[in-house]
């Protein structure tokens, strides 16, 4: 009698989305008026009918079972029928996707054992009145505005292991800001990972952004992974952003203190370029040993242009890598021209060469990078082939093609894609001491030849199994949340008629 709920139910009902039937709309970046798989209202109605009507009608004691859905039965608010305690499918759901309306109703109370929740909706500006307890929740993805106006979620925040936060300053009143959230992190926090998604790159310099990162770094002793990305799709603002206070001074020093404690940092190049340091930070020497702890930094650039990394980007990235002593460098890129993989590989190896021997002052050179990895994540040709495959499956009436849509993820590829599309190439690095290496200035111009020994990096390919896709899952996890928030949590313009 207990075989089904104890053995099968945790597998069958582990994950549930009340927002969409698959990730196709997010992957295709479909306008809301053209979404095919995200009819939230219909999905919720179907779910509640299946849960309450169909299942209860088949129960031996349907009348008693109904009491599980009443808020005060027999003057006991905690009363649950046997169905509510042991058999109801929501008891076995660990991961849930929902919108604001589901949080405002009684539905969320049915999911008592949730460990992961993703709220896919635009920011909610009214206080949530529903009362629910999610004691086991360890992962939350949510719009900052919704979080600020939800006392229940704010209380849970310090207990989370991971928080994916869409910080949309364009729709968040500056009088309230994110101070209630910052306040929750002023005491001990269990947070280990933060995925911070900004509405534009410049908000990295807002005072509230800096305070949030500082407070988490100070009070979350196990905080080790940080992603800072920005929303790429147009997002309409409903509030005047001029009310937000900028950090007074160079933000680089504050961020460097946060980055030093991390084992994983993922950051957009567009955000990286806005980080400024005090002049002495660029030239200050850094001591390191040959036995560095493995630490990974991932740079994200959707459109690579130019033969070299921009000198500003190079200097900023160089400071962060040296001072934080990262050992593995990942580069997630999109190609602006076809067959640019070798071009990007040269760009990355030149950057490592500059890190190791690009300064006349030997104390500024850094030999800590042990491995580089590059992955082509965006390509006009490859993206088009993927869209064609998805489009063909949508038009097809065959059950196999339609079921294949359930397996479409942001990192999905087709057999027709180029071999390096969404597949990592990695290279180990050894340093060889040589004399007479060329020296260039900050703009990349040749200024002379070194008369002292310098360390030149040598790169060897990391072998991997043929035909098996290898991806940077730390990156794609954050990219998946970014796509979801872009699809469901931004205010898309209803019409383009008025410019």
Overview of the structural elements:
The protein has 499 residues and is α/β, with parallel strands linked by helices. It contains 18 helices and 15 strands. The protein has helices at 3-12, 24-28, 40-57, 62-66, 82-87, 100-104, 144-148, 151-156, 179-184, 207-219, 252-259, 269-272, 279-283, 311-324, 341-357, 380-395, 399-404, 473-488; strands at 15-17, 95-98, 116-119, 139-143, 162-167, 193-198, 225-230, 264-268, 296-304, 328-335, 371-378, 425-434, 438-440, 446-449, 454-461. Strands 1-2-3-4-5-6-7-8-9-10-11-12-15 form a 13-stranded mixed β-sheet, with helices on both faces. A two-stranded antiparallel sheet has the order 13-14. Helix 14 links the parallel strand 9 (296-304) and strand 10 (328-335). The longest helix is centred in the first third of the chain and has 18 residues, at 40-57. The model has no long low-confidence stretch (mean pLDDT 87). InterPro entries: LRR_dom_sf.
Q: What is the gist of this entry?
A:
By secondary structure, this protein is α/β, with parallel strands linked by helices. Helix content is 33%, strand content 18%.
What is the number of strand segments?
Answer: 15
The overall pLDDT, averaged over residues, is: 87
Q: Beta-sheet strand percentage?
A: 15-25%
Q: What's the tally of helices? A: 18
Structural class: alpha/beta
Trace the largest sheet across and list its strands: 1-2-3-4-5-6-7-8-9-10-11-12-15
Coarse shape: globular
Distance between the termini: 63 Å
Low-confidence segments, given as residue ranges, are: none
Oligomer: single chain
Radius of gyration: 25 Å
- Largest β-sheet summary: 13 strands, mixed
Helix fraction by DSSP (H/I, runs of at least 4): 25-40%
């Amino acid at each position: 009698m207990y075989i089904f709920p104890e053995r099968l139910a945790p597998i069958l009902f582990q994950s549930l989305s009340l927002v969409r039937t698959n990730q196709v709309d997010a992957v295709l970046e479909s306008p809301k008026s053209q979404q095919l798989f995200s009819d939230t209202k219909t999905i919720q109605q179907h779910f509640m009918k299946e849960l309450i009507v169909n299942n209860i009608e088949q129960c031996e004691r349907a009348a008693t079972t109904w009491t599980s859905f009443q808020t005060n039965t027999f003057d006991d608010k905690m009363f649950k029928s046997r169905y509510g305690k042991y058999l109801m499918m929501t008891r076995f759901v660990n991961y849930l996707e929902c919108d604001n309306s589901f949080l405002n109703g009684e539905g969320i109370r049915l999911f008592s054992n949730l460990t992961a929740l993703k709220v896919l909706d635009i920011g909610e500006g009214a206080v949530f009145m529903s009362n629910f307890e999610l004691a086991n929740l360890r992962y939350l993805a949510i719009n900052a505005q919704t979080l600020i106006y939800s006392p229940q979620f704010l209380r849970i925040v310090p207990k989370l292991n991971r928080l994916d936060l869409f910080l949309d300053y364009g729709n968040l009143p500056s009088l309230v800001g994110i101070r209630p959230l910052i306040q929750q992190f002023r005491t001990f926090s269990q947070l280990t990972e933060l995925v911070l998604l900004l509405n534009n790159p410049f908000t990295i310099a807002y005072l509230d952004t800096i305070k949030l990162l500082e407070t988490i770094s100070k009070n979350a002793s196990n905080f080790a992974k940080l992603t800072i990305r920005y929303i790429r799709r147009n997002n309409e603002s409903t509030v005047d952003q001029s009310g937000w206070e900028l950090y007074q001074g160079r933000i680089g020093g504050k961020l460097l203190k946060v980055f030093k404690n991390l084992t994983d940092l993922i950051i957009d190049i567009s955000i990286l370029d806005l980080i400024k340091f005090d002049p002495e930070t660029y030239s200050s020497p850094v001591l390191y040993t040959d036995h560095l702890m493995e630490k990974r930094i991932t740079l994200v650039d959707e459109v690579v242009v130019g033969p070299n990394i921009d000198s500003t980007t190079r200097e900023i990235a160089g400071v962060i890598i040296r001072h934080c002593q990262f050992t593995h460098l990942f580069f997630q890129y999109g190609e602006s021209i076809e067959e640019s993989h070798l071009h990007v590989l040269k760009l990355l190896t030149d950057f490592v060469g500059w890190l190791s021997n690009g300064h006349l002052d030997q104390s500024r050179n850094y030999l800590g990078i042990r491995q580089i990895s590059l992955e082509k994540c965006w390509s006009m040709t490859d993206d088009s082939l993927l869209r064609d495959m998805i489009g063909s499956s949508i038009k097809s009436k065959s059950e196999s093609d339609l079921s294949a849509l359930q397996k479409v993820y942001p990192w999905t590829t087709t057999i027709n894609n180029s071999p390096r599309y969404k597949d990592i190439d990695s290279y180990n690095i050894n340093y060889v001491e040589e004399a007479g290496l060329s020296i260039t200035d900050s703009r990349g111009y040749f200024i002379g030849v070194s008369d002292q020994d310098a360390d030149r990096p040598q790169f060897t390919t990391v072998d991997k199994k043929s035909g098996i896709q290898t991806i940077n899952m730390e990156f794609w996890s954050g990219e998946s949340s970014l796509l979801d928030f872009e699809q469901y949590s931004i205010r898309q313009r209803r019409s383009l008629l008025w410019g």
